[in-house]
Amino acid sequence: MTTFIQLHLLTAYAPSNLNRDDLGRPKTAKMGNTDRLRISSQSLKRAWRTSDCFYQSLSDHIGTRSRRFARDWVYKPMIDNGISEKIAKESAIKIAGQFGKVKNEKSPKDPLTNLEIEQLVHISNYEQQAIKQLVDLLISEKREPTDNEVKLLRKENSSIDIALFGRMLADSPAFNIEAACQVSHALGVSTVTIEDDFFTAVDDLNNNDVDAGSAHLGERGFASALFYTYVCISRDLLLENLNGDEILVEKTLKALTESTTKVAPTGMQNSFASRAYTSYLLIEKGSQQPRSLAVAYFNPIRSQDLVNDAITRLEEQRDKFDKVYGQCADSRYVLNSETGEGTLSAALDFVAQK
Q1: What is the pLDDT of residue 152?
Q2: To pair with 102 at 20 to 30 A between CA atoms, which of 44, 56, 235, 317?
Q3: Pairing state between β 64-66 and 121-123
Q4: The whole model's pTM is what?
Q5: How far apart are CA 326 and CA 313, in angstroms?
Q6: Which residues of 84-123 are buried (b: 16+ CB within 10 A; e: fewer)?
């Protein structure tokens, strides 16, 4: 049976704008008939996979998501090494075409735009190395690649970000990777009201002799919330995606768990310094069907002690499910910064163990 690892996190952010909608305002969602602050799972996953927590221990196993890789990894090095414009362009287009549909704009502003593909694609570090080796060969022999040489997609994968969050190639479904990790949108446990910050900027060289006005006027939305985030990992699928490398699986689980507890999305960090560690982490392991505990917050919390009341609700909801469905996990570990229970080091050891 599949072994699932479930992470339940409560993380408090002071007023901030971590993840913006199309109008530049903090994202929200309706839950329990009230507005809640929201951080999309896409925003969370990118912040985690590009964080130091991943790169410090797994830098050799992280892929790249891009649609302009052919111009940077193929065209540019060939041009820099004296290859003709025609060969460099044709080589880039041939290699790019293996990973997606190449752009075909009639009058692009940037003449190299048509070396890009139309959609972002996640390229494993192994595939990136294969592209580099081929480009080095083409440079040494001053030629374009053959049809056989550009077959660079690989099913074998050692990139942890692809193993965790998956890859979909519409034109080459044989090389799709099913995600081993599912991430919820982070949702506030209480009702939210988005506020507006009207601000001005002053010209340091303006002595007000002629104009006493500001040099810039601006407005941005912000809000604060305690977020509940749920992460579900299939340990068996992660092991399969990483070619059975158990040591790499353990490192990946530790890096993911640490990043979920420490790493915030990058949105407007310079304006709000909205860095936060999670206040509460519940890790569950077992073969039981996984379940989120978000139902604990459908009735929004209205209290002066939001963090502790949210922890109480989460643990009560966990116990309610256990009572009616039976034990919903084989083993659990709790890190609670409010009570001082648990340590991050012990939590990482727990999550990595089989």
Answers
A1: 92
A2: 44
A3: antiparallel
A4: 0.91
A5: 19
A6: eeebbbebbbbbbebbbebbeeeeeeeeeebbbbeeebbb
